[in-house]
Amino acid sequence: MATWTLGSSIGVSQPSSCSDVSLPCIPFSSPRLSFSSIIISPLKLQRQVSRRTARPVISVKMSAAEAFQEVLPPALTSASEPPPIFDGTTRLYISYTCPYAQRVWITRNCKGLQNKIQLVPINLRDRPSWYKEKVYPPNKVPALEHNNEVKGESLDLIRYIDSNFEGPSLFPEGRREFAEELMNYVNSFRGSVVSSFKGDRNEADVAFDYIESALSKYGDGPFFIGQFSLVDIAYAPFIERYQPFLLEVKTYDITAGRPKLAAWIEEMNKIEGYQQTKGDPREHVDNFKKRFLSPS
Which of 36, 77, 205, 207 is within CB 3.0–4.6 Å of 192 for a Cys-Cys bond? Predict the structure, then answer.
């Protein structure tokens, strides 16, 4: 995890963040004003459970009364003033279209932290200079401002939020070895699928067959380790983008012959905390076409 205090680096892990040269982070053409996201019932969480005690596992089926309505702020640009940095507020700096930032956004929502962690969206095509100078010198998203430090790298941040904030556990102790294996594979998965965009689909076949096999390991739920976890959050933003792009450009249905993957996508789409973060499939396809299929 990259950690910055007044601009100094403590450590850097494998990159998992968006800059202007990473996966497409082009702003949506139309603003998104409000969405329904997840908030956890006090009865389910036993209210203010200590991090040192066992935390309940998230329930993915929430009633309408438990839905949290959040109006999303507009993305900040080079003309925007900075927030009052290091004033004690916990802030999550994201781009609405960055898949890496989406991981952390989903985690925040699924732990019911909408009132604890403030979203600060950044326009990566017109980012404010103060973001690099005062907030996060790598100048990428996501970044988390917490306890007078700013930390980065999405896979590190989803673990950090799960371990350091209240809410349902998203990385339970059981089956952790297999969960770690899947977390370690996610970058290879992404690389294999992207390499198939301009070539044949063999590498994508191998990658999605691995996912199908992983989803078949446990029979007590539709998710990677049975119950919903950080593993699902790590993969969801990328599969969300790959599915419509490959279907349109390669006429390749990633769910054909993969019933576990089809069921996983269906169940993921029922999770309120994920629904809020989803982008427009049409825009995902157009963004990927511009990045991967435009003449160089």
Answer: 207
Residue type, 193: V
Convert the pLDDT of each residue in 169-180 to its tens digit: 999 888 999 999
Amino acid at 228: F
Ranges of beta strands (E only) in the chain are 3-5, 8-9, 34-38, 67-71, 91-94, 118-121, 143-146, 149-152
pTM for this prediction? 0.82
DSSP-derived pairing of the beta strands 67-71 and 118-121: unpaired
Residue type present at position 157 = L
65 phi, psi to nearest 5 deg = -70, -20
As a whole number of angstroms, the distance between CA 197 and CA 203 comes to 10
Strand extents, DSSP E, 50-166: 67-71, 91-94, 118-121, 143-146, 149-152
**Residue 187 reports pLDDT greater than 90:** yes
Q: Scan for tokens 């790298």, then name that residue.
A: 153
Residue type, 109: N
Among 6-15, 213-222, 287-296, the range with the most confident prediction by mean pLDDT is 213-222
